[in-house]
Design brief:
- By secondary structure, this protein is an alpha+beta fold.
- Helices cover 27% and strands 19% of the residues.
- The protein has helices at residues 20-32, 38-48, 57-66, 135-149, 174-181, 198-211, 219-235, 247-250, and strands at residues 95-99, 103-104, 110-118, 124-130, 154-157, 185-188, 271-274, 280-283, 286-289, 298-305, 308-313, 316-322, 329-330.
- The strands form 3 sheets. Strands 1, 2, 3, 4, 5 and 6 form a 6-stranded mixed β-sheet that branches. Strands 7-10-11-12-13 form a 5-stranded antiparallel β-sheet.
- α1 packs across α2 and α2 (38-48) packs across α3 (57-66).
- 36% of the residues are buried.
């Protein structure tokens, strides 16, 4: 039976990871010459290792930064630590969201219910019968919810679409970037650990039993069932964990009103740039590959060393680039303490 167990999804090697000999050499040179920057260290590398690809200046700078060998300028910014999931002990401190498994309606169309609950009160904020997990559908649902209920402090989800994007910078999606813009912290459960969203999954079991078996004939009929289920779940169904109170007796709308996206600026950076639709930062005639999930968003860039630039989004430092390679070298898990790595 051992041969049938799941194998680790951790990659055998990581793309663009420096050989440890090169990384150790970079660190040793920096410690020997504390005043040297990435440009001088790269020159020493080119003379020492002639038979291997030499990393870019931004890559070397990122290595030095990771080991605390770079002097930070300006205000201290939030760096991700991969912290534990929050407790969410009061209403609106933590919302949980997921798609209940898709099922077939009577008209042979698949239904993908998008659900959101308040963690503390168990209040079912919404249950929407959608035809797919498309990002624009989720945007519409959450914007309406924010207008009705206000903004939570954090949102917890799994690592699936549209909450995350496996191939994007820090596995962020456009939806997640929008949440960050609104000042909402992001929490992600570890892949394969649905128990980390256990209260929400327990609600899904009740939803499946009482509102999807048998399925309705079409989306309108199924949504009517979901609406009825939501009404009963919130206002008529006692919950043992709430001392037999109804969720509606505990939940209150958030005091943080939704008024659209706030303006952001970067007074301590050299420039404020808007990411292009194709996910690039244009600095003069140079185009730096960044990430499409940030398209249309303003980011701050600051030259932290000779021809090495730091890119920040709001209060989060994302990574470095240089104008020679024009490729972002991401910092490790840099989009805030609530964004957990995919591995």
């Amino acid at each position: 039976m051992q041969g049938l167990t799941d194998r680790s999804r951790r990659p055998y090697r990581y793309a663009n990871q420096l050989p440890f000999q090169v990384e150790n050499y970079v660190l040793n040179v920096k410690r020997e010459h504390p005043s040297w920057g990435a440009r001088k260290i790269r020159e020493r590398l080119m003379r020492r290792f002639s038979g291997i690809p030499i990393p870019a200046k931004s890559t070397i700078h990122a290595v030095l930064d990771r080991y605390g060998l770079v002097e930070r300028r300006g205000r201290v910014r939030h760096r991700a630590q991969g912290t534990a999931l929050s407790l969410g002990q009061r209403p609106n401190e933590l919302w949980c969201t997921d798609y209940k498994g898709e099922f077939l309606l009577g008209n042979h169309q698949y239904c993908y219910p998008l659900t959101v609950t308040d963690h503390a009160s168990r209040f079912l904020l919404t249950c929407e019968a959608l035809s797919s997990t498309r990002e624009d559908y989720a945007f519409t649902v959450f914007e309406r919810l924010f207008k009705e209920r206000g903004l939570p402090a954090n949102i917890r989800s799994d690592n699936g679409v549209p909450f995350a994007s496996a191939h994007a910078l820090f596995n962020l999606s456009k939806l997640a970037v929008w949440w960050l813009r609104l000042g909402i912290g992001i929490e992600r459960i570890k892949p394969g650990h649905p128990q980390q969203n256990g209260r929400h999954e327990r609600m899904h079991l009740t939803l499946k039993k009482e509102a999807t078996k048998p399925a309705a004939g079409n989306f309108l009929q199924q949504q009517a069932r979901f609406d009825k289920f939501t009404e009963v779940f919130n206002n008529e169904r006692p919950h043992e964990a709430l001392d037999m109170k109804y969720p509606a007796e505990i939940y209150q709308p958030s005091s943080r009103s939704y008024t659209g996206l706030p303006d952001i600026d970067y007074p301590l950076h050299d420039k404020t740039m808007v990411v292009t639709r194709c996910g690039r930062i244009c600095l003069g005639k140079k185009k730096v590959n960044f990430s499409q999930v940030f398209a249309g968003q303003a980011v701050g860039i600051k030259e932290v060393h000779d021809d090495i630039w730091l890119v920040s989004f709001m209060n989060y430092d994302l990574g470095y680039f240089d104008l020679e390679t024009r490729v972002l070298e991401p910092l490790e898990n840099s989009c805030g303490p609530k964004v957990l790595p995919m591995s």
